Amino acid sequence: MNSMTILVADDDPVIRKLFEKRLGKEGYTVTIAADGAEAARLLDTRPFDVIITDLVMPGKIGGIELLKLAKEKSVEIEVIVITAHSSIDTAVDAMKKGAVDYLEKPINFDELFLRLEKISERKALMKNAGDLREAMEVTESSAAQTIQNLEIINSNQQQLLDQLETILTNGRQEQGKRIEQALHLLTNRSL
Questions:
Q1: pLDDT tens across 7-36, in order?
Q2: For residue 89, pLDDT beyond 70
Q3: Residue 60 main-chain phi, psi, to 5 deg
Q4: Please, which pLDDT band fits residue 121 given cuts at 50, 70 and 90?
Q5: What span, in angstroms and rounded, lies between the C-alpha atoms of 115 and 98?
Q6: Where does the secretion signal sit in this chain (predicted)?
Q7: Bigger pLDDT: 89 or 18?
Q8: How far apart are CA 157 and CA 144, in angstroms?
Q9: CA 46, CA 70: separation in Å to the nearest integer?
C-alpha cells in the first residue's frame, strides 16, 4: 500500500474523479480540489506529499501559483504540473519554480505511477538520510561526553599518581611511614 498523500487540483470534474479513482485504487490517500483556491485552502489544513495540479484553472490561483504556494508551505511537497497545452516553455517555467515533473493530458497513468514511485523512493531515501544524520549526531554527542569523562578520570588519576610520588619520594620520612601514607591515600581514592 502506498502511504503518500496526494492533492489533485483540476477544474474538470471528470478528470478529478478519474484521478481520485485511479490513485485510490493504487492505495494513495487522495484529496481533490475543484480549483487552485480550494487547493490552497486545503494546503492550510493538512500536509500533502504530492500535489498534482492542472496548469490552467479559473480564478486567481492557477497551477504555477499553487506550485509557489506549496513550495512556500514546505519544500518537501512535490508538485506535478499537468496541462492540455503542450508547451516546452511552460514546462521549463514550472520546473524552474520547483515542479518535480510535468505531464500532458490525457494522462498516461502508468507513467504517472512510475513517477509517483520515484518520488516515494526519493522521500524514503531522504528520510533514511535524515535518520542517519540524527543517529550520527547522537553518537558524536555521546562520544564527546565519553571523551570528556575520560579526560576528567585521567586528570584525577594523574593527580593521584603525583601525590603518591610526592609521598613515596619524601626522603625526610621513614620508609614505613611513607608506605602507610601511600596506602591510606590509595584506600581513600582509587586509580
A1: 999 999 999 999 999 999 999 999 999 999
A2: yes
A3: -80, -20
A4: very high
A5: 15
A6: none
A7: 18
A8: 20
A9: 12
CB within 8 Å of 62: residues ≥ 6 apart? 36, 54, 55, 56
| CA–centroid distance for 178 within its chain | 63
> How is domain 5-107 classified at the CATH fold level?
Rossmann fold (3.40.50)
**Element spanning 114, H or E:** helix 109-168
φ/ψ region of 145 (left if φ > 0, alpha if ψ in -120 to 50, else beta) reads alpha
Distance between CA atoms of residues 70 and 102, nearest Å = 16
Phi, psi of 78 (to 5 degrees): -95, 135
**Measured in Å, how far apart are the chain's first and last C-alpha atoms?**
59
Pair 9, 57: CB distance under 8 Å = yes
**The predicted structure's pLDDT at residue 143:** 87
Rg (CA), the chain: 33
Cα–Cα distance, 45 to 72 (Å, whole number): 15
Supply 93's cell numbers. Answer: 517555467
- The neighbouring-strand residues paired with 51 are 7, 79
